Amino acid sequence: MIREICKNVFHVGAIDWDRRLFDALIPLPDGTSYNSYLIKGSEKTALIDAVDPGKKDVLIDNLDSLRIDRIDYIISQHAEQDHSGAIKFLLERYDSTVLGSQKCIELLLDFGIVSKDRTRAVSDNELLSLGDMTLEFISAPWVHWPDTIFTYLRERRMLFTCDFLGAHLATSDLFAWNPESAKRYYAEIMMPFRANARRHLERIRALGPEIIAPSHGPLHKRPEVVLNAYSEWTSDDVKNLVVVPFVSMHGSTEKMVSHLVDALIDRGVSVERFDLTKTDTGALAASLVDAATVVFGTPAFITRPHPLIAYAAILANALRPKARFASIIGSYGWGARIVEEMRSLMPNLKMEIIEPVIVKGYPKEDDLRAIERLADEILRRHRELGLL
Ligand SMILES: Cc1cc2nc3c(=O)[nH]c(=O)nc-3n(C[C@H](O)[C@H](O)[C@H](O)COP(=O)(O)O)c2cc1C
Ligand SMILES: [Fe+2]
Ligand SMILES: [Fe+2]
Question: Using CA atoms, how far apart are residues 210 and 157, in angstroms rounded to an integer?
Fold first, then answer.
C-alpha cells in the first residue's frame, strides 16, 4: 500500500501489525511500522530508509506498483537493520548509490548490507539536488546510534528523522499523535540520550519544518506537538511521582510496598507500582521518564537482590532516567547484601539514596513505621523541589 504525502513524496514502507517484541526485549503492544519514503524529483529519485528485512517484499511491491524503475539514491539515515535490512535486496534490483554518514556507511559494510563501491558518505549540511527538489542532510548523532542523520526536503518543509520522534505504533492513520506510544518509545530508545536529543530539538525548531516524518509510527502534521512533548521529557524537570518496581516471593516485600504506596498516597504523592512478575518493561520505562523518585522492593535471593529486581536495576541504569532520589525496601531471612548490590548495579545513576528499609522476615509494626518515615522523607524531598 502506497500513500502520497504530498506531491511526488510517497510513503512506501510497511506496517508490522503483528510484531510483539523489539530488540529481543521491548514489548510492542501496538505493533510498529518501518517507514520508507520515495521522493520523485524532476531529475533524480531518492528513497529515504528501507524497511526491516522481514518486510522487504512489501517495500518492493510498493515500488513496483508505483512503476519505479530507477532509484538514484538510497538514503540510509541509520544503519540499524530495521531501516537498512532491505537495502541489500534493493541493490539487486536498482543501480542506486547508498548515501549516509561516514559512520553509517562503515556500519552498513560491517553488517554485510552493502559493498563499498555502492556507497557515498555525506556530511552535515550537504545538499543533494533531485532537480525540482533539494535534500539537505543534517548530522544528528546519538539518537540512538552514532550514525544518525536527518534529511530535510526543503521545498516541502518536510523533515525525515528516522528513529527520532517516532513511535512503535501500527496504525492506518498516516498522521496521528498518540502520546502514550510516543512516550513509551522515547523512554525505551531515546531517554539514555537526553542531552543529545535536546540539542537536536533546537536544531529542528530552527529549521521550522511543517511535517516531521519519522521511520517508525505516524507522521507529525503539527510538529510543535511532538517537539513540545520531547522538550518536557528531555528537560531536567521531574514530577511528584514515585515509581515502585518490586518483586516478592512470599508476601513480605509486597506488604512493605503496599504500606509505602498507601503512605505516599496519604501524603499527596503519586505512585506507579510495578510487580515485576507481571510488568511490561515498556510501561515501567515510560513511568521513569518524569518520576522524581524510584523505590526498588526486593527480597534476598541467594545472598543478593532477586534477579527480577536486578534486571530492573540494570535496565534503569541503562535508560538513565532523570529521577533525583532512590531507595530500597525489602526482606531477608538470615543475611544478604541487598543495598550494596543494588548500588553496584546502577553505577550510572546519580540519584541520592534515601535511607533504605530492609527487614528480617515479615514486616512488624516497627518496620511499618520505618516505611512511613521513608514516605515522610520522600515527601520532604519532593516539597523541597517544589513538586507539591
Ligand atoms: C530462593 C530463595 C533464596 C533465598 N536466599 C536468601 C539469602 O541468601 N539470604 C537471606 O537472608 N534470605 C534468603 N531467602 C529468604 C528470603 O529472602 C526471606 O524469606 C524474605 O522474607 C522473603 O521475602 P518475600 O516474602 O518478599 O519474598 C531466600 C529465599 C528464597 C525463596
Ligand atoms: Fe534504531
Ligand atoms: Fe528503528
Answer: 5
Contacts of 59 (CB under 8 A, 6+ apart): 12, 13, 14, 36, 50, 51, 86, 90
- What 3-state DSSP class applies to 332? strand
Residues 6+ away with beta carbon under 8 Å from 154: 133, 134, 135, 136
Q: Which residues fall inside 5 Å of ion ligand 2, going by CB?
A: 80, 163
Q: And the C-alpha cell for 243?
A: 515509581
Atom of ligand 1 nearest to the CA of 302: 8
Q: Whose CA is nearest to atom 27 of ligand 1?
A: 249
Ligand 1 pocket by Cβ (under 6 Å): 248-253, 299-303, 331-336, 361
Distance 279 CA to ligand 2 centre (A): 24
**What would the pLDDT profile of 338-382 be if each residue is shown by its tens digit?**
999 999 999 999 999 999 999 999 999 999 999 999 999 999 999
- Tens digit of each residue's pLDDT (9 = 90 or more) over 119-134: 999 999 999 999 999 9
Domains of the chain: residue spans and CATH: 3-234 (3.60.15.10), 242-379 (3.40.50.360)
Measured in residues, the chain has a length of 388
Q: What are phi and psi of 339, to 5 degrees?
A: -65, -45
